[in-house]
Amino acid sequence: MDSVETLQRVIDETQRVVDNVKPEQLADKTPCTEWTVRDIINHITGGATMVRESLELGSVSPERLGQLMGGDNVGDDCAGAFRRAATQVMAAVRVPGALEKMVVLPFGEMPGAAAVGMGIFDVTTHACDIARATGQTITDEQLVEIALAAGKQMVGPEMRAPGVFEDEVPVASDAPAMDRLLAFAGRRT
Predict the structure, then answer these.
(1) What are phi and psi of 110, to 5 degrees?
(2) Which of 14, 91, 132, 180 is the most buried (most CB within 10 A)?
(3) What is the pLDDT of residues 133-170, one digit of tens each?
(4) What's the total number of domains in the chain?
(5) Domain span at residue 70?
(6) 78-90 pLDDT, tens per residue?
(7) What's the rounded Cα separation, in Å, for the pair 146 and 152?
(8) Please, what sign has the CA dihedral across residues 139, 145, 151, 157?
């Protein structure tokens, strides 16, 4: 499956989950223990903006990175902010040559295609975090399987750290895909 098409599916599914978050759920804890529901939406919104800007400019400045990864990217409209950032990053990945372009992200320099692959894993994992915290589910099981496979290719021991991806949690091989993805990401749900 085409990585751009897959990323669009990730964004569509994540937007559905974000759109169904009730305002009173924004402060709820998530399986990503460092963050609330709002924190995760803020993170994936900032991440989408960071990838878009990196595709357009090659990298983002340390100051801009600090703003995107540590500032408020959603204001009082989490769903709308994510929608805008997601629309913009999808436009950027569809520019001819974007997947071949080298970009600098916090975890290194890579082609745009690798950044898209990381986004497929990371955003799907965070969509599962939000879904679990708010009593929702990810309806596209195949997408979760794709994200899990991408994660297993990209997440090595060097990325296993508190606040990033904890150590993998044991889970039954026949557990639902969402449970296996969260366990792979180190979530103790």
Answers:
(1) -160, 160
(2) 14
(3) 999 999 999 999 999 999 999 887 777 777 678 888 99
(4) 1
(5) 3-136
(6) 999 999 999 999 9
(7) 10
(8) positive
Give me the phi and psi of 160, to 5 degrees please.
-85, 105
**In-domain check, residue 152:** no
pTM reported for the whole predicted model? 0.94
Two structure tokens written together for 110:
């890579």
Does residue 41 fall inside a structural domain?
yes
* pLDDT tens by residue, 103-122: 998 878 999 999 999 999 99
Give a yes or no: residue 188 inside a domain: no
Cα distances from 67 to residues 45, 73, 100, 153, in angstroms, run: 12, 8, 26, 29
Say if residues 110 and 58 touch (Cβ distance below 8 Å). no
Letter for the amino acid at 143?
L
Please list the residues that pair with 165 across neighbouring strands.
160
pLDDT reported for residue 30: 96
Q: 3 and 147 in contact (C-beta within 8 Å)?
A: no
| Residues ≥6 apart with Cβ < 8 Å to 12 | none
Residue whose entry in the numeric block shows the structure tokens 């520019």? 95
